[in-house]
Amino acid sequence: MEGCYHASMRTAALLLVLAPMAQAQWNPSVGEWGKSEQTDIRVATWNVKDALCRTANKSDAAYNWAAAARTIAALRPDVLVLQECGDNQGNGTGSGIDSASVLTNVIDLFFHGGADPYNGGQVDAYVQKYAPTYDLPYVYVPTISDSYNRNIILSSFPFGDLNGDTRSTLNDLPNISSGTWAAGGDGGIRGFQFAEILLPGDTYVGDLVMGNAHLKAGSGSANHAQRVDAASNAAYYIDHLFNGAGLGAPDPFNAIADSPQATSILSENTAVVLGGDWNEDEATNNQKGPAEWLTTAVTVGGTDGTDRDRTDMTYDSATHYFTGSNDTIGSSKYDYLAWQDSLVSLRRAVVFNSQGTPTGALPPEFSGYPNPPYLSTVASDHQFVFTDLILPLVDNCDEIYEYCLDNANSTGFPATLHWSGMPSVSAGGLTLLAQSAVPNQFGLFYYGPVQTQVSFGHGYRCVGSGLLGTFRLSPAVQCDAFGDAQRTLDWSGPPVGSGAGEIRAGETWNFQFWYRDPAAGSPGFNLTAALSVKFCA
Length: 537
Description:
- By secondary structure, this protein is of the alpha+beta class.
- It has helices spanning 9-12, 64-75, 88-91, 100-112, 127-130, 221-242, 290-296, 375-379, and strands at 4-7, 26-27, 32-33, 41-47, 79-85, 114-115, 122-123, 138-141, 150-155, 169-170, 192-197, 208-214, 271-277, 314-315, 319-320, 335-339, 345-352, 384-390, 400-403, 416-420, 431-435, 442-448, 450-456, 459-464, 471-472, 477-478, 485-488, 508-516, 525-527, 530-534.
- The strands form seven sheets. An eight-stranded mixed β-sheet has the order 1-8-9-5-4-18-17-15. Strands 19, 22, 25, 26, 28, 29 and 30 form a seven-stranded antiparallel β-sheet that branches.
- Mean pLDDT is 95; it is low at 9-23.
C-alpha cells in the first residue's frame, strides 16, 4: 500500500457505526442540515484550495482553515473526499508540498486540535471544537501528487480489503492496456485513488468502495484529452476489475497491470461511489467529458457502463438548497459525485454555499465566525457537494408488533398473542403462541392482509379480508390446562405456502387467535389482540 492510512486512536476504538449528528434531522430552513435517516451514508467531495496544509493559520478567525473546519463540523459527512490539500505556497503561508505522512498529521490536527508542531502554539480551530462527538478517524493520504497538492479520502468506517488483493487503498490506477476501449495508462496527473470501506454488517448488506480524483485543469483540447483519458481508464478499472465485466472474475482479459492481483470481484451488494474535482462542466462542454466517461464508459445507455449490472452509473444533479444553483466554482460545475444506482438510491444531493443561505438557516456551527454568510467564500473557491445515499440494508426480520384490543374472558383475564422464532420464509420457523385463553377449549389461528377493529363476540375482530380474504390455519387447536395453544406456520402447502394466502418475503400479514368461551354466555367466543408481521426472505 502506498500513501498513509491512519485511524485516529482517539476514536477508532469506538468503531463509530455512524457519524453522530447533534442535529439529527433535515430541516435546512431552520439550520438543521443533518441526515433525515441515520442509515443513509452521507458522501461529500470538496476541493479545499490549499486550506489544509502544515503552515496554514489555524486560528479561530476568518481564515480558510477555520472556515473549512466549521463547514465539515456542520455537514458531517460519513465519507469525505478532498482535493488540493498540502500546498503551503498555494495557501500563502509557506512553501513546498506536505509529504503524505505530514499531511496525515495535519488532518489529525484539523479534526482534533492540539499542539501545532509547524507554527508553534495550539491549534485553535478544529472540527471537534464545533462538533465534539463527530470524527472521521480513517484517513488515506496517497503519495502521488502533482508536486503541489494531494487528494485525501476520509471515512467514519474502517478500511479493509474487499477483493483479495491484500490492500484496502489504491494510490493510483495500475497501467491499463491501450489495447482496450480505454485510453490506456493510469489515473492522470494527480492519480485516481480508491479506498475499500467496511460498513457495519449488522446494518448494511454490502460494503462501499470510494474513488477520488482531481483531474487535469485547464481549457483546450489537450487538457480535455487528459481528463477523459484518465476517466476512461478509471471506468475500465471499475467495470473490469471491481465488477468483472459481467464475467464473474476480476480483469477477465488480463488488461490491468494490477499487483498484487485481486482474487475476486466485489460482492454483489458492495457499491462503488466516485467523487472529486473533475474540472469540466458536463452540461456546457458540448462533448463527452469525464463525468460521462466515468459513469457510462463507451456507450451511453449501453451494456458497458460502470454500474454493477453494466448499465450506466448516475452522477449528481446537486443544487443549492435555497437558490437552486448547481455551480460549484464560479458559474460552472466541476465537482461531482457518482454512484452505482442499481445498488444505491439517492435521497438528496446538495451544493452547500453559505452565500445565498438565509442567516437563520446557517448551521449553528457557524456561530461566532466573523461574517458567517461569507464563510464558504473564505473556506475555498469550490463549494462543498454532498449526497445522502441509501444503501442496501440488512433485513433483521424483526418487524412484529401487537395492535388492536383484547377483552377479558371467563377466566377473568384477556388472552394474549405472542410469537417465537423468526418471520423468515426460507427458515419457516415462526410459531404463534396464544396464552391465557379458556382451558381445554378449541380455537383457531387465522390471518389476513388488513388491520381493523370491529366488535365481535366478547372481543374484537382485528384482521380484515381486504381483496384477498382471511385464511384459517386449520385444523383448530385445543388449548391446554393453562389456556395456551400454538401453531407453527407451514409453507409446504396452502394457505401459507400457495394460493391467495401465500406468504412471501417482503409482505406484511396480520394474525389473531379466535377461541371458544361458552362460560361467558352467548355468543360464546372471544379473541386475542392481533400481531402484524412483516416477513423476510
